[in-house]
Amino acid sequence: MSQTAQNNVNITNYALQFRQDFAIISNWVGFGSKVLDLGCGDGELLQFLRLSLEVKGYGVEKDDANWLACMENGSNVIQMDLEDGLSGFEDQSFDTVILSQTLQAMHNTEEIVQEMLRVGREVIVTFPNFGYWRNRLQITNGRMPVSKTLPYQWYDTPNVHLCTINDFDQFCKNHKISILERCVITNSQTVHFMPNLLGNLAMYRLKAA
Amino acid sequence: MLEKNSVGIVAAQTAHFEQALTLKSGAVLPQFDLVYETYGKLNADQSNAVLICHALSGTHHVAGKYSADDKYPGWWDNLIGPGKPLDTNNFFVIGVNNLGGCHGSTGPSSINPANGQPWGAEFPVLTVEDWVASQAMLADYLGIKQLAAVVGGSLGGMQALQWTLAYPERVRHALVIASAPNLTAQNMAFNEVARQAIITDPEFHGGDYYAHGVVPRRGLRIARMLGHITYLSDDAMGAKFGRKLKDGIRYSFDAEFEMESYLRYQGDKFAGEFDANTYLRMTRALDYYDPALAFDNDLSAALKTVQASFLVVSFTSDWRFSPARSREIVKALLDNERTVSYAEVTAAHGHDAFLMPDAHYHAILRTYLDKVRV
């Protein structure tokens, strides 16, 4: 095995261990495909997809420090605000457009999902499930949920559009979006039983109907 | 005194070309000189050369000083030097004065070999394409087959872009900063006012003022004052001068406001050292550059042959070369699935920001350039 291949395997194992969501995303992305990662942060997912699947990847990021980190990670990164839409990208010009754990922080939620479906042949959206039992428990106790997945106090949170799995299913139905696959995980374990109650992170593979 | 991380004391060199150069206009320059400077060392396989393209009034003197007590260093000294974002420990950096310039390269004030007189009005109108062709001849002269990068701001960014179109195999990276794929009507309008100021100066003499022993100072001065207004943002001018008066209102037309004395100072300084004929040609090259024109104004089609990787940078307060214009370049590159990154720097200084040592801006350039393999 070549050194590069060996490195790839190690990196893959590393991510599998710590980022189950990355592993699931990589199952939904084709080898050598063209990927756009919206709100790409420090470019960790893009780097993972590039090393494991040799994707041609571009990130979109607004924040200066994240932009630099992304460049440092060797990813192409376009600085722009997702709230302005994706006007710089042609229709159906990407195999996959990804919005990883950013949907809940978007103001123009409907617009960005429609824009992703316009630009990407397929779309991957992941978000923290607000219906997760630990969140429900905190609400029952009269407090806004604060957890590892939702680490903000109500007054300083960037999350303005939190939703549950059932809410998002209904959103897709209302907007005529096909759900190709859905995967729900909690602590890196896939949840099949009562996902809206027991699932922490919701992951969707979508397509325009 | 030389500051830390300076390239040190530098000297300009001249490359003489006996080959005739046919320009885009059809005019022919029978022979020409290009004056240039270099910083750092060209490596054994000539793979670490970076060309700096200058803007309207720039020169080949990009970094370092000519003597220890030289007051000012080269115009992009904050970027270039050992340990600086464009690190001369890694790169061999070339600064060149463009053809038609007035700092040593053949231009309107040079002697026309045909008649022994200054070229003056006879000197041809140049284009960005012509500059890039002559820069490629300089690269040949220096033994460089492929540049690691071409870097330019404003009009210099257009040259960097043109390199990737004219010589796709000869440039690995293009850094296009505060630039545009062509000028808007408004942007060209500023150039027209600047040229009219020069051309209507009684001392312009149709461009042959050298023979009369005069220079169209007034025109050049006004042209530069206008330029300086457009290089700054409203906010930057407000912060720098606001409505500050030098010594109160005197009900005169003297330079009472500090902004006025700034513009007059800049205009006078420029008129004393720059050639009016060069200014006309530099602005015309800006106006004419439009790589999409031959492709039905489809920039994506125009950039199809690009092979280089791109870093495109714009500045939020730059209204003369606005971020929207840089995004057009980015979109055309994305449409062609080229390797491109784009940064939109939050900056108050307007177009001038590309020459400022802003920490984040320099971090962008440093991070990108550190990844350029040599």
Protein topology:
The complex is a heterodimer of chains A (209) and B (374).
Chain A: H1 3-18, H2 20-28, E1 34-38, H3 44-53, E2 56-61, H4 64-72, E3 76-79, E4 94-100, H5 109-119, E5 120-128, H6 133-140, H7 165-174, E6 177-186, E7 189-190, H8 195-198, E8 201-208
Parallel strand pairs in A: 1-2, 1-4, 2-3, 4-5
Antiparallel strand pairs in A: 5-8, 6-7, 6-8
Chain B: E1 13-17, E2 21-22, E3 28-29, E4 32-39, E5 49-53, E6 80-81, E7 86-87, E8 92-96, E9 111-112, E10 117-118, H1 128-141, E11 147-153, H2 155-166, E12 171-177, H3 185-199, H4 217-231, H5 234-240, H6 258-273, H7 276-288, H8 299-302, E13 309-315, H9 323-335, E14 340-345, H10 359-370
Parallel strand pairs in B: 5-8, 5-11, 6-7, 11-12, 12-13, 13-14
Antiparallel strand pairs in B: 1-4, 2-3, 4-8, 9-10
Helix pairs in contact in B: 1-2, 3-4, 3-7, 4-6
Concise structural overview:
Chain A has 209 residues and is an alpha/beta fold. Chain A is 37% helix and 24% strand. Chain A has helices spanning 3-18, 20-28, 44-53, 64-72, 109-119, 133-140, 165-174, 195-198, and strands spanning 34-38, 56-61, 76-79, 94-100, 120-128, 177-186, 189-190, 201-208.
